Amino acid sequence: MNIRENVDEGLRSIQSNLLRTVLTALIIAIGITSLVGILTAIEGIQNSVNSSFADLGANTFTVENRNDDGFRNGGRREKQYPVINYQEAGDFSNRFRNEFDATVSMSANIGGAIQVNYLSKKTNPNINIVGADEQFIGIKGYKVDFGRNLNKNDLENSLNVAMLGQEVARNLFGNLDPISKEITFMGSRYKVIGILQKKGSLGGGTDADRIIIIPLDNGRGLAANRSLTYNITASAPNITDGEFILEEARGLMRRIRGDELGKEDSFLIERADAMAKDFEEISGYLRIGGFGIGIITLLGASIALMNIMLVSVTERTREIGIRKSLGATPAVIRFQFLIEAIVVCIIGGVAGLLLGILIGNVISTSISSNSSFVVPWLWMAMGIIVCVVVGVISGIYPAIKASKLDPIEALRYE
What we know:
- It is a single chain.
- The protein is α+β, with helices and mostly antiparallel strands.
- The protein has helices at 3-16, 18-54, 86-100, 136-139, 152-156, 166-173, 216-222, 242-257, 274-315, 317-325, 330-367, 377-403, 407-412, and strands at 60-65, 71-72, 76-77, 103-114, 117-118, 121-122, 127-132, 144-147, 161-164, 182-185, 188-196, 211-215, 230-235, 267-271.
- 55% of the residues lie in helices and 17% in strands.
- The strands form three sheets. Strands 1, 4, 7, 8, 9, 10, 11, 12, 13 and 14 form a ten-stranded mixed beta sheet that branches. The chain has a two-stranded antiparallel sheet with strand order 2-3. The chain has a two-stranded antiparallel ribbon with strand order 5-6.
- A hairpin with a 2-residue loop joins β5 (117-118) and β6 (121-122).
- The protein is elongated.
- The model has no long low-confidence stretch (mean pLDDT 80).
């Protein structure tokens, strides 16, 4: 009997015991779903993180204030440093821009829990007001949906103009055109000049879309007597060595801040792609963990499949005896039962792959709002290979048991 005949015979046997086959395939499908689903979700989140930082470039970094992280090392509090002020931020921006032909943006958080009003409509008090220059949206990966960006006239004259994030515009204006409409927040009226494209954020939140950008000097005036902390975001596309540009920026900022030689930095420098790299490392461990969980689930499924195949051998003892009496060799019997186990695993595996991809993408989309649909071809191929291996492991013992049956005793079996 050739392979094709064995496969056909296996399919006929499967069809004659359809309910048992479906239940067995479901056991395998659940195991493959857990394996592929977890790995697909991790892949989707990883792609989302990578795409979020793709437009920023490897040499984009932010110089920001060093915050107090609380108590450390036996209750000793970390040293407090003065915030980065307007003069220091401006000095760094001008010198770094001229020295490295870099794109540099200055910004400051004016308010982080602000309510915005338009006529009778108002937002929740969770809007972030940012004072920035015309380079801010480009260097931070924002794009203008419609309207325009801040320009030099807005900045030089500290005009009351604002760009709105998607969520702010949707809550205040719905389907209305917001351009040139006036909104109110922090006791001042601002004219809307532009709307940002939806950006989303990791975790499924919309913090990046709950933003209003106003001219930097206008924001300084809006803050009144409050002391602001200024952030500098820079990108030097002509510099190929990311570490070199970071060290140059660190040295320049230390000179501006007057940091003593041998002392730690009084500020922080964060690379734009640092989070993506950190998550890539973490996702590697998550993949290993997810693969381990999936394999454990499949191990339980393989034990259940082996039990079902042993039951099948017992039920078909007389059939085996007839086949042997007609000349079927032990090798043919072994191969037939092995093929049946593998076919059942592949049927369950295909169903598990489809469910795993669907569930994995749902999970990744719920965690990261800008996640795209992922088809993990590598993990799909891995899933099919695992199915075949599980089929062989589960079917080998029942197949050997069936091949060793004595044909005379098998024919007597009722």
